[in-house]
């Protein structure tokens, strides 16, 4: 499943006063028809894409699908399969933030309404990067609620994952054969010194929290104590452990050069660059959940010579092929996103208006070197991998 995505992050910053709507900042609202044509031009059959929650979810039970109606009809006509992203880092102003206990039920109702309006859609990512959403909003204090305490962090985790679980149930009521691609950041934490061992062990347990709860996987004892000490009740934990949705799920994992971290003896962290790389860390996640895998996000700045992103693409592809050869069921690959992004070098925390050259196309919709390389990769490998499609379809069928 060769895919790209149209960047639709939409968290708030500045105490909720500023909405970082990347569809607006990257020009998609004005050029969406052109963007869809570029998806076909590069050769992707799949597109990670979704309407903005803060625009569509007007009030409880009140929805505005006017833009989605037009956009999704166009995708269907051109034969591009959407992996529908329904919540990407932000909620409508009237909900507030991820501390709102009403969010999960409100969001699930919205997802059910979307599925009824677009019954032909099968692939979904209800909540994108649940772990990062909680960390950036309620642990680092960067987005949305902008909090930095453990109780707020656990509250965000349980509301976000509950929203994702209830959304899956709501969609399955409409589309019983729906498949859910959990696009989640794949992380690893390395101890810098012996004093950092305990801190790294804790963080390496913490990285699994959102997927553990989503898949009904028992957390380790340290994580169980952490959750209960910071506001999760036993009944809330049991809710997650009694879900049976794994057969509908594909473990989507996202990988960037910033996904490995170096932990100090004091427990602080900094980016470590690539130490293990995509393959070994993905194997840790696959060994834990034993689900089919899709590489759902990666990108890299093109660098001063204009070719760094192209080298990164081929490195990611080599990692995928190695995992496939070793028997890990890798179902797809995604370069994210179709076009350049804005201010992701500061994680959207500041409005600088700086264009990050990470797309297959620049914001004038001209192809970058990585776009041409991805087109070549898809063209070269599609025929070979299509011969293995008889393996892909039974895997998907067995999940559903």
Automatic annotation (TrEMBL):
Gene3D superfamilies: Glycosidases. Transmembrane segments: none annotated. The keyword RNA-binding does not apply. Pfam families: Glyco_hydro_1. GO terms for biological process: carbohydrate metabolic process. SUPFAM superfamilies: (Trans)glycosidases. It comes from the Bacteria. Keywords: Hydrolase. PANTHER family: ALPHA-L-IDURONIDASE (PTHR12631), BETA-XYLOSIDASE-LIKE PROTEIN-RELATED (PTHR12631:SF10). This is Glycosyl hydrolase family protein.
